[in-house]
């Protein structure tokens, strides 16, 4: 069992846990969901567990599901996975899989078992014919949520990099998945980060700040804006304590979706970072005023900062960020030989009762070999 994700669905006051099961022999891949009503969360008898085949494409080469994304709108939950061939150690990526599922059967086990609508294989290729990798369905807020939106990013080369916005919409004959790609300009792969107590030139204490994949997407339906973010290379200035220090930074995007999806625009994009400091693993959400919140990890050998949990806020219509330390790291994290694995389970969501508050889930280095989860509630006021 691996890769647990939990979302809170404010439309039905229900938590949804999604996790994966995989075995090489015998070959097995399952996607498990557990709906937990908030009002009776302490009574497991009210929970509803549903199991799906991880490979939803009959007759195709056997694959297993990895790295789930979970999103929702008012009526459906959407689960995405990356599909790899068996066995785990040598399997290769084949395609992205998208399942959109009616909440009625997913949340209430007294209803008939839900049958997902599945998009996979060539149906999850973007409009340029490339296979999407790590599609991220949006968690939706707003009084008129509309269709399910998703995002993905395609690193090509140089200034031909682009992101894709996807939309699942019901029609008279069933659900349809549409997509539109938008240029982002050159996006370079982020470097490994450094951390306090480590040597800038010693890879043993470097940490993995992330890659081009989006971790989440967040759709503010009241503003008709979808947000997402990832880690990138950004040479921020000035470098005062080192010679040349190319930083890992966070790049975030606001996409304004249009009725004709190809008319959608990347309305804003910006950078969260600082000179001689590395940041990574961002997740995003807005408050009820439209302020964008980004939670992420941050560390720096030159400035003696251990791996820490941070939040940045960006006002509506701006690209200027304010950074807030949520919890400082306590030690140099050096749990293994070589660069340290870190941080791809940050999360953030808006408080359904007070839209000015956002809950963040993050982690910090608590000792040389351990990291500690940390949940906080933050506001921009």
Tell me what the structure shows.
The chain is an all-beta fold and 381 residues long. It folds into two domains: 1-124, no CATH class; 169-381, no CATH class. 1% of the residues lie in helices and 49% in strands. The chain contains one helix and 23 strands. The chain has an eight-stranded mixed sheet, with no helix packed on it. The longest helix is centred in the N-terminal third of the chain and has 5 residues, at 103-107.
Distance between the termini: 40 Å
**How much of the residues is beta strand, in percent?**
over 45%
Helix content: under 10%
- The protein's oligomeric status is single chain
| Strand order in the largest sheet | 12-11-10-9-13-14-15-16
Q: What's the number of structural domains?
A: 2
Helix and strand pattern: EEEEEEEHEEEEEEEEEEEEEEEE
Q: What Rg is obtained from the alpha carbons, in whole angstroms?
A: 20 Å
- Major sheet details: 8 strands, mixed
**Given the C-alpha coordinates, what overall shape results?**
globular
Structural class: mainly beta
Which blocks of ≥5 consecutive residues have pLDDT under 50? none
So how many helices? 1
Residue-averaged pLDDT: 94
Strand tally: 23
Comma- or semicolon-separated keywords:
381 residues; mainly beta; 2 domains; eight-stranded mixed β-sheet; four-stranded antiparallel β-sheet; 1 helix; 49% strand; globular
